[in-house]
């Protein structure tokens, strides 16, 4: 009888998690995480045209990458960006302005490739339409002098964008998003404060431009409702990428302090599993969190302050069972007083993606924390 009750409890937990984790429909197919070095790395390491031994993206640390580029002339840097834009644009530790330039070149090349596919008679009409959608996304990222710090077209696509001057801002912040975010959903006019770009832009404005903010969609997120959203496989892969990204910021920028990292929804699982050190982050802020993959704040680095935003009454994440059993669930509720996080208000916010809306108590608190107050 006890085994039967246990099985029923597990089944109920799985069903509850599947019912509420995610923003779309049921996702039966799991996502394959994009991992490893940037695309084009094999050609990069084999390139001897400039008479240089290029650092292996798979084994070099961001600090080693930064030291390599510091020893190059501006002409050599630009030549490498032109020859290997997808590598330089995604190489943590490379100079920030050079990454912007490399990603402009990479986006232009990918846009042109997708435009050619829109009229390829060998493709189905559906594939041609997908190519048009992708090409339009690349066009919008190329418009208006956007500062794209990372761009990887593999899989569903990954991207990071900077608001403000990352090389001179005294403070920085990083937004880590949750489920259903990729290259195409990175920025949506219909949800101005619920996407990584919307959140980053709102925080940048709330600090009056004194904090440079990065919208980081740099890992493979779960899609819709399914196993990916209820388990931590994608979050573990994302945590590795987040750690390296933060190391790259430390190696290539000189703010007064490491960034404050804001972790939304499933992104809070990524942040919890990353367990950033004081060298990587000045603090962690979670919002709309289903759990952080840890039992309490004591499982994280005590030198990195942790804040948890109170859930508003219309945030469906409150229906997620805070369990972590047999690979399902993400653990204790960070807003529970016993978890050990510092509480933040959310007055004025609505829904799962409304915490960065201007005029809310949550955004005001985020701006204060991002500025070190």
Features:
38% helix; alpha/beta; 12 helices; 8-stranded mixed beta sheet
Q: Summary?
A:
The protein has 373 residues and is α/β, with parallel strands linked by helices. Helices cover 38% and strands 11% of the residues. An 8-stranded mixed β-sheet has the order 1-2-4-3-5-6-7-8, with helices on both faces.
Descriptive account of the structure:
- The protein is α/β, with parallel strands linked by helices and 373 residues long.
- 38% of the residues lie in helices and 11% in strands.
- Strands 1-2-4-3-5-6-7-8 form an eight-stranded mixed β-sheet, with helices on both faces.
- Strand 5, helix 11 and strand 6 (283-287) form a beta-alpha-beta unit.
- Mean pLDDT is 91; it is low at 1-27.
Please, how many helices? 12
Which structural category fits the helices and strands? alpha/beta
Measure the end-to-end span: 55 Å
Instruction: State the share of residues found in helices, binned by percent.
Output: 25-40%
Major pleated sheet: 8 strands, mixed
Strand order of the largest sheet: 1-2-4-3-5-6-7-8
- Low-pLDDT stretches: 1-27
> Quick one: overall form?
globular
Can you write the helix and strand succession as a string?
HHHHHHHEEEHEHHEHEEEH
Strand content: 5-15%
Return the average pLDDT rounded to an integer.
Answer: 91
Write down the Rg. 21 Å
Number of strands: 8
